[in-house]
Amino acid sequence: MGVIQRIKKPTTRKGKKVLLSKEPKAIEGAKQCLFLQARNPSERARKVLKDIYDLKKPDAAYLSRKNDFVPFEDASLIEKLCYKKEASLFGVSSHSKKRPHNIVLGRTFNYNILDMIELGAENFKAMQDFHNMKVLTGIKPCLLFNGPAWDLNQELKRLKNLFTDFFHREKVETIRLQGLEHVISFTATDEGLIYLRSYRILLKKSGQRTPRIELEEIGPSIDFKLRRTKLASDDLYKEACRVPKEIKAVAKKNISKDAFGTKFGRIHMGKQNINRLQTRKMKGLRKTPEEKKKFLQKKKLAKKQQRTQTA
To answer: How many domains does the chain have?
Structure first.
C-alpha cells in the first residue's frame, strides 16, 4: 500500500520552490537516508545502526524514537517518513527472540518500497572501541566487494547494489591520490555471512614516486548474517534504473575504444586516382620529356577506347 499524495497548487513563491525540489531530476545529488527504530531494538542493533549512520553522514537523518511496527509486515510508516524527509534509503533496527539484533536495509522508488533486505548482526565491534584517528565526515569512501558470491547469488547481487547506493556520494570526474582516505570492505561467504570492515588509508614513504599503502582499521566491524529479503520484480527494478534521455551519452559514429581506453577513429574516403596525385616536388624528380610523351600517348589511347565503346 503506497503513500497517498495530494496534488496541491502552490500559492507562494516558497511553496513553489518546495514542490519543484520534490520533483524528479535528471541529475540527482547524493541520496538521503533515514534511520529509525522499530519494535524493541536491542542495544547492539541500535549501536550498529548508529555506526552506519555515522558512515553515511551528512546525507542522513537519525530518529531515536521507538516505533511499534514490523517492516516486513507493514512498511507504510517507512514510506510516510521517507516522503516527509525526502529520503530514498532507509535503515531499521529491531530485536526479537526469533530474529535477534535485526537490521533491515532498503530503498524506495516513487515513495514506495523497492527493495528490503534483513541482516542479523552476529558479531559487532563499535567505532568507538577502535582508539585511533578517524576520517572526516563526508569523505567519499572506496568500496571493496570481496568473494565470488557477490556475482553468483541473486540476493547478494542486489545487496551489493544496495550497499553501493548507501555509500555512494556525488559523482567525481577525477581522483586525487591524497583524497583517498577511507575504505569500506564487504566480504561475502558461501554460508551467507557478510563481513563489513572499515579502514583508513595511510600513505607511507616508499623511496619512489608512488607511496606505500597501509590500511588501519577504524571501525565499525560487523559480521552480518543474511536473513529475509523482499526484492522488487525485474520490470519494476528496470524502471527504477532507467536513465533519462537528457543524460544518455550520444554514441559517436566510427569512433571506438579498446580495453586500455585508446581511442580509434575510422575515416571513409572516396575513390582516388593515384596517377593524378602530385608527389614530385623537386626539380630532379620531375618527368623527363620522354616520360611526358608516353603519358600523353597513354591518355589519348584511353580516350579512343572509351569512344569506341560508347559508339
So the answer is: 1
